[in-house]
Amino acid sequence: MESPVGRALIEDLCSAIHPLPNGPEAVARLACKVGADLVHIDTYADQGDLVGELRKVGVLLSSMEDGSFGRRPADLVIDPSPGAELGYRPGDGSYRLFRGAGAIPIRRSIQELDGAKTASRGLAAGRDVMIIMGGTDARDMTSQCVELWAQTRIPSRCFVVDPGGRQGFSVELAAGQSLEVIQPSLQVPHLFPSMDLVISGAGTTTWELATLGVPMALVQLVENQADNYTFATGNGMALGLGNASMGQLDKPSAVAALRGLLQDDVRRLRLGVQARSVVDGGGADAIVRYWEQMAAESAGISVRPAEIHDAGQLFDWRNDPTVRQVSREKDELAWDTHVAWVSRVVKDPGVCLLIVQCDGQPAGTVRFHVLEDGHWEVSITVAPAMRGRGRAAEILLEAERYFLERRPEAVLHASMLDSNVASYKLFLNAGYEGTLDGSGEESWYHLVRRGGPVPRP
DSSP strand E in 191-332: where? Predict the structure, then answer.
């Protein structure tokens, strides 16, 4: 592990550290040897069919990715890039997705830091600035950012976290400026809350600072930080100093922007408040809850409410030609329209959108949509991979049971084209009754089911 701080963090959390096994089969063997229920991986390197090998031995795979960087099939895919949940991710056999700002994992040690000083930052005569690029800083942006700060000539103390082990920097300081070099350590974040401004790369540190409400100025250091940089600067969380991944920064513009921010106490405070409103610090706990839920769902059939993270899977199912052929709306859906619809319905009390899973794999979706008081329309889509396995009746039954346990007074309605014989038989066998309406351009069955919750066997 290249970063001593990173290794120290791992050692603090883990009872044992093993060298990375060579190949997915070796990872699966190690998982079995140590009795792991789940393997979590965070690397851009190709790991082969890791999910396939782990599934053979009954072990779940959780995988971190940044957009297309590090993308691989997994039982749980985590992309902590804010806004990622609104983008389409092509289906690749992954089971669950957890994406967006809510997935940002913040260390508990960061959450426990005192952020109360945020409200008074910038009101004193002096200003404290920190420069921290993280990792190994292969581009030596640390020294370039020191120059940017020095050239502002704003009286301030600058604390520079230098992964290169230098004791100082050859830079001309103005009156009232002072520079102190500190070495990377687990104690560095304890200084974050007292800083009036932190200059950083647009990586993990961005979200730690946001959790604490610390004003930031960001540099995009590498290509895979583009989404973070664009989101943070575009949403009023941080000042953007430029993209260094393609070469040198525009230093005069960066110095001017930095000088203006150091002189504007109110703007810095606003940046910190906005950043804090985006990152709630609960991502790590949420990831663990996903792991626990997935472990509980690994066998049998289960039902859960749909989330915005299911939008891609629902999109693929709805646009399947077989589904469109028997739907009221036969045109292929556009992604933007679809994700806006999912965003709305998962919060709508008049819609209950459920995902049904069989043996740890998504099997279909059942939607209950209120028609009028006490009357709900139900529709079902079986996942293409589950068709022909005789699971549709079980999927509908479990979804109805989930829904009616919460709304026992509901009367359920179902409609389907007369050509959709399979759907007609499915609902008929589930206790629905009704007639065929042939008055329009197409003939539809309209069926109704009464009777309260489905009893458990």
Answer: 197-201, 216-220, 239-243, 301-305
Q: Enumerate helices (H) and strands (E) in the chain, giving the number of each.
A: 15, 17
The CA–CA distances, whole Å, from 400 to 174, 187, 249, 408 equal 72, 53, 59, 10
Its pTM stands at 0.85
DSSP string across 325-342: HTSS--SPPPHHHHHHHH
- The answer to whether residues 325 and 381 touch, using CB atoms and an 8 Å cutoff, is no
For 181-240, the pLDDT digits (tens) are 998 888 899 999 999 999 999 998 999 999 999 999 999 998 889 889 999 999 999 999
The residue type of 441 is E
Structure tokens at 161: 């976290």
- Helices 204-212, 226-234: axis angle to 10 degrees equals 30
Q: Which residue, among 456, 457, 437, has the nearest Cα to 448 in the 3D structure?
A: 437
DSSP-based three-state secondary structure for 142: helix
CA distance 208 to 225: 15
Q: Which of helix, strand or coil describes residue 453?
A: coil
Tokens standing for 94? 């992954």
Residue 141 amino acid letter: M
The two structure tokens encoding residue 5: 């701080």
Number of other residues whose CB lies within 10 A of the CB of residue 218 = 25
Separation CA 264–CA 251 (nearest Å): 20
Read off the pLDDT of residues 114-158 as tens digits, 9 standing for 90 and up.
Answer: 654 444 444 445 689 999 997 767 678 899 999 999 999 999 999
Cβ distance 363 to 301 under 8 Å?
yes
Structure tokens at 124: 């004193």
At residue 401, φ and ψ (nearest 5 deg) are -60, -45
DSSP letter string, 12-38:
HH-S---PPPSSHHHHHHHHHHHT-SE
